Amino acid sequence: LPLDYTRSYISGDLGQVSQNTNLFGQMRYTFNSGWNTSTNITVTNSYSNGPGPYFYLLGRDSISRNDQFTTNSRDRMFEAQQNLNGDFFIGSLRNRFVAGLDVFNHVSNELFGEGTLDTIPDHGTIPAYRDFNPQTLSAYYTTKGVSFYYPVNTISNTYSAYASDVLNLRDNLMVLAALRVDHFVNKGT
């Protein structure tokens, strides 16, 4: 593309505050050499607030400068999983077995908004080059308003149960049987 890739087409002070925290924990208990159980817990919390600049290439010589902002947006996921693992023989047939339960919860409370600031040339002298900044963006939203708001307010849960077994019929022949049941509950947006 014939673009000047050394240009950012944006001021350096237009940024979004984003935070993300991920936690993972596992507890494992061994009954004997063939059986164990594990509990896995995962938590993710995300937060964002502020502008999200992006650009569209228009034709061969111009760029549309846009903002997709978030306002005090939070997204949380929690998952707990309990597994029972076994490695045992029935007669001379080796079995590797796993059964478990899984609970997944997702809570989203996010607000996205969007506006198109302007269209500028993608090369040469650009008089409005430094106009994509917090002051100009604020003035744009004050006078022209937001193009659209997109709220994402959802609570969803997934409850799962599963079991599988790998059976060695011979050294080079194995059979796998598995069953999984999921129940989805979406409380809508």
Question: Could you walk me through the main structural features you see in this protein, from its secondary elements to its overall organization?
Answer:
This protein has 189 residues and is mostly beta strands. 6% of the residues lie in helices and 69% in strands. It is built from 1 helix and 7 strands; from the N terminus they run βββββαββ. A hairpin with a 2-residue loop joins strand 6 and strand 7 (173-186). The mean pLDDT is 92.
Mean pLDDT: 92
Beta strands, count: 7
Strand content: over 45%
3D shape: elongated
List keywords for this structure.
189 residues, single chain, 69% strand, seven-stranded antiparallel sheet
SSE layout and pairing:
Layout: E1 17-30, E2 35-50, E3 53-58, E4 62-90, E5 93-121, H1 134-144, E6 148-170, E7 173-186
Antiparallel strand pairs: 1-2, 2-4, 3-4, 4-5, 5-6, 6-7
What's the quick description here?
It contains one helix and seven strands; from the N terminus they run E-E-E-E-E-H-E-E. It has one helix spanning 134-144, and strands at residues 17-30, 35-50, 53-58, 62-90, 93-121, 148-170, 173-186.
